[in-house]
Design goal:
single chain; 2 domains; Aminoglycoside 3'-phosphotransferase, Chain: A, domain 2; alpha+beta
Length: 353
């Protein structure tokens, strides 16, 4: 789950009065409270005389330009028309869904009552519903978005998870591990987190050296994806999904890799194992909904495992960006890599059985 362009300081309160004046029927403001969840952008529960709304402030520099946000908004409106559980933004009096104030982009959404549920609360039936839902998202995006533009012949796609992306190079990861270890050692007073980070970095270096020959080269077929499908971006009412939110990372990437990546977030236990029975139910439902083959999921599982083996985004936030908001995610994320490497065949089987 690599991240970038992190807003490290809390922004000033949004200009609620000026924003609401753009909307004909939004009412007068009564309160505006920050929503705790979210790492890249800011959200507020905005209550007016007409009821509650969700006010989103777009801050992630990779996705916060007006045209990119408007494209996301058009997609969610089209998905909503197809019956997907999304919460499209509300248009202002001029029909626009993006408002710019004080140099920031905002969007006003209906407030969706619901709660987040991870794999521990889904069970087998809920895991099947989740796999079916993501499958429907992918097939619906194929209907509402323009076909992906293929890369020109001979183009270097560079590292990452985009269409045709090359997998991480071990030599680059070794250099990053050395840099992070240097930053950990340079801390004047190390705490328990620093000691765990040092242990995991050294452990990962040994794992990568042992498995460098398994670097995958074949990407899964690309398509339009949500881009950030995880428990904090899915609201439930009871056992039913009520809204998929935060479409900032809508992009063309390997669809099966999003399915595997999402499972590795939804179904990871605090000690780092994946709940494989739930993964199997989820993956079967996803394959049925999309027509994806077992071979496609196998390739995706290989690539996401390699991605995780080479990824240190939580430590980069802490030691390079001096941002500790991702610290609580590190213990389970780092333990998962070790467990997944040990149980490689069982994990692959869960996605393809």
């Amino acid at each position: 789950m690599p991240r970038s362009s992190v807003p490290s300081a809390a922004p000033p309160a949004p200009p609620v009065g000026a924003l609401l004046r753009r909307y004909a029927d939004a009412g007068e403001p009564l309160s505006c409270e920050p929503v705790a969840q979210g790492l890249l952008n800011r959200g507020y529960r905005l209550t007016t005389t007409r009821g509650p709304y969700f006010l989103k402030q777009h801050l992630d520099t990779l996705t916060a330009d007006r045209d990119t946000i408007a494209r996301q908004h058009r997609a969610t409106h089209r998905l909503h028309a197809l019956g997907l559980p999304v919460a499209p933004p509300l248009p202002d009096a001029a029909g626009r869904t993006v408002a710019v104030a004080d140099g920031h982009c905002y969007a006003l959404h209906p407030w969706i009552d619901g709660r987040h549920r991870d794999g521990a609360h889904l069970g087998t039936a809920g895991s099947r519903r989740l796999g079916t839902l993501l499958g429907h998202v992918h097939t619906a995006l194929e209907q509402v978005m323009d076909p992906p533009v293929p890369a020109p012949p001979g183009a270097d796609p560079g590292p990452g998870s985009g269409p045709g992306a090359v997998s991480a190079r071990p030599e680059d990861t070794f250099a990053l591990i050395d840099e992070l270890l240097r930053l950990v050692a340079a801390r004047p007073a190390r705490d328990g987190f620093d000691e765990l980070a040092r242990h995991r970095l050294q452990e990962r270096r040994a794992l990568l050296a042992a498995h460098a020959h398994r670097r995958p080269s074949v990407p899964a077929p690309p398509g339009w994806v949500h881009g950030d499908f995880h428990p904090l971006n899915l609201l439930y009412r009871g056992t039913e999904p009520a809204a998929i939110v935060d479409w900032d990372r809508l992009d063309v990437r390997p669809r099966a890799e999003e399915a595997v990546r999402a499972a590795a977030i939804f179904f990871v236990r605090p000690t780092g194992e994946l709940a494989l029975a739930e993964v199997r139910a989820y993956a079967r439902a996803y394959r049925r909904a999309t027509g994806a083959s077992c071979a496609e999921l196998a390739v995706a599982a290989d690539r996401v495992w390699w991605e995780r083996l080479n990824d240190f985004w939580t430590l980069r936030w802490r030691y390079q960006l001096h941002d500790r908001r991702a610290d609580p995610l590190f213990p389970a994320v780092s333990a998962l890599v070790v467990w997944w490497t040990r149980e490689y065949a069982a994990v692959r089987d869960a996605f393809t059985d």
